[in-house]
Every structure is written in structure tokens, then in C-alpha cells.
Specification:
Blueprint: H1 2-14, H2 18-92, H3 102-111, H4 123-130, H5 140-150, H6 154-167, H7 181-189, H8 206-209, H9 213-258, H10 262-279
Helix pairs in contact: 2-3, 2-4, 2-9, 2-10, 5-9, 6-9
Length: 280
């Protein structure tokens, strides 16, 4: 095709048809300019698509992190539900004439002195922030949801406060509780190879202990803080579910555009480059 147009140009020049030749030359120059502009635009489109692809990879990572967070929150709910149920059973033991062996009461009491912390998985979120790709997320409402979720510290704080309260317990205030019972509880749940506590049974009289003011104060403190844990847990799980839903929607809406034109784009750029080189 290009040799054909060159023959026309040469014939027009030989016939001294300057006006026709000038029009043809200007048209050819315009075609070259348009081709260059299209190539530049397509290259910009490719760069933009590559950045979108990186954003989508981050979003996939965030979605996976959020699923893990939700599983850990489910585990946290089960743990604190078990703790509060055990405390309630011990408080109701006398009033409802519930009969428990000392070993059962010992397990429940010492289990109530344990806690679990929560910290969400933030590695992908911190990467998308530090790498600057959060600015490329074209859904600002989604960005705000991400920031609100990952910068919300209340569930982490409530579990840390629970642990701090348990750490503040003064075991010397009780004349009944034998702190060596904690080792027996550890022995029942331990995963340390070759380690074993030699005590065969709890030393404390737990039926008497759970009626003391010292134990009841511990129960009240734990129940009060558990209430904060559950409220924050419920709120944070709701935020997690909503954010995952929005990320899934974002992924579904943007993934299709990444794979629609890549082959066509490469072929167009290749043809345009050849055309521009040969025309010059």
C-alpha cells in the first residue's frame, strides 16, 4: 500500500501538479501525526491498565486478609463465649444448686483467667498505602471503608484491656486460691514437649473460692470487659463483611476491562510503528 502512494506522489511531482502534490503531502503528514497521537494514546492506556492490574492484585490480597480476619474473629467469639459461660455457671452454681466436681470448677475458674488478643492482618493494606496505589482506586467510598476498617483500633484495645485487667489480679489477696493450680491448667492444655506438671489435682477448694468476694470481683470485672469485647467484635465483623462485599464488587467490575483489549492493543501498536517508520 505504501509503495502505491509513493508512485502517486512521484507521478504528481513529474507532471508538475504542485497543488495536488501539496494536498497529498499534507494529507500524508496528517496521517503520520494522527498515527503518532494514536500510538501515544494507546501507550498511555497500556500504562493505565498496568497500574489498574497492580491495584486489583492488592485488592485480591486485601480480600484474602479480610477472610482470615473474619475467621480469627469467629475464633475470638467462641473463646470469649466459652469464658463468659463458665463464669456465669460459677456465679449461678450456688443459687441453682448446680453440682460440679472440684476439678470441673477448677478448670472453669482457671480458664476464666485466660484471654486472647486480636490484631487484624494489615500487611497488604500497608503496602497499598506505602506504594501509593491507594490513589489509583477509583471508588473513593471503598477507600474510605478501607481506612475506617484498618484504622479502627477498638476491638484490639478491648482485648488488650481484658488482658491487662487479668494481669492486675493480686493473687495474694485470696487466702484460698493456690496459684500452683495455674500450672495444672497449663499441663492439661500444653504443647511443650517433655513438659509435665506433677500435680495430680487442683489444690484449691473451688466450691468455697467462687463464693468469696475476691473471686466475685474477678468475675464481675471479666463480664464487664467481655461486654465491650463482644460489642466491638460485632461491630468489627459487620465492617469486615461489608468491606469484603465492596471489594468483591470492585474486582468484578474492573477485572473484565484488563483482558478485553491486550492482544488488539499490541497488534495496533506494531502496525502503527511500522507505518510511521516507513512513511518517514
Amino acid at each position: 500500500m505504501l509503495p502505491f502512494f509513493r508512485k502517486i506522489r512521484y507521478r504528481l511531482a513529474e507532471d508538475n501538479q504542485f497543488l495536488k502534490y501539496s494536498r497529498y503531502a499534507i494529507g500524508e503528514i496528517l496521517l503520520v501525526v494522527i498515527g503518532i497521537l494514536i500510538a501515544i494514546q494507546l501507550n498511555a492506556w497500556k500504562t493505565d491498565q498496568e497500574e489498574k492490574d497492580k491495584v486489583l492484585k492488592y485488592m485480591d490480597g486485601l480480600y484474602s486478609d479480610l477472610k482470615q480476619d473474619h475467621e480469627r474473629m469467629d475464633s475470638l467469639f467462641v473463646f470469649y463465649s466459652g469464658t463468659t459461660s463458665a463464669i456465669q455457671l460459677m456465679l449461678d452454681a450456688e443459687d441453682q444448686e448446680l453440682l460440679f466436681a472440684n476439678d470441673e470448677l477448677g478448670q472453669m475458674f482457671n480458664a476464666s483467667l485466660e484471654y486472647k488478643k486480636f490484631a487484624n492482618k494489615k500487611s497488604t493494606y500497608l503496602s497499598i498505602i506505602n506504594d501509593g496505589f491507594i490513589q489509583n482506586v477509583n471508588d473513593k467510598n471503598l477507600v474510605n471503608q478501607m481506612i475506617r476498617y484498618y484504622e479502627s483500633p477498638f476491638l484490639t484495645w478491648s482485648t488488650e484491656i481484658y488482658g491487662n485487667l487479668l494481669g492486675s489480679i493480686d493473687y495474694d489477696e485470696s487466702d484460698i486460691y493456690d496459684s500452683r493450680d495455674i500450672l495444672l491448667t497449663l499441663n492439661k492444655n500444653n504443647s511443650i514437649p517433655e513438659w509435665q506438671h506433677r500435680g495430680e489435682e487442683y489444690r484449691t477448694n473451688y466450691e468455697e473460692l467462687i463464693r468469696t468476694k475476691w473471686a466475685i470481683n474477678i468475675f464481675s470485672m471479666c463480664l464487664k470487659q467481655s461486654d465491650f469485647v463482644f460489642k466491638n467484635l460485632d461491630s468489627y465483623r459487620g465492617m469486615n463483611v461489608e468491606l469484603r462485599k465492596e471489594i468483591k464488587k470492585y474486582l468484578d467490575e474492573n477485572k473484565y476491562s484488563l483482558f478485553f483489549f491486550p492482544v488488539l492493543f499490541g497488534e495496533i501498536c506494531h502496525v502503527l510503528r511500522i507505518s510511521v517508520i516507513l512513511s518517514l
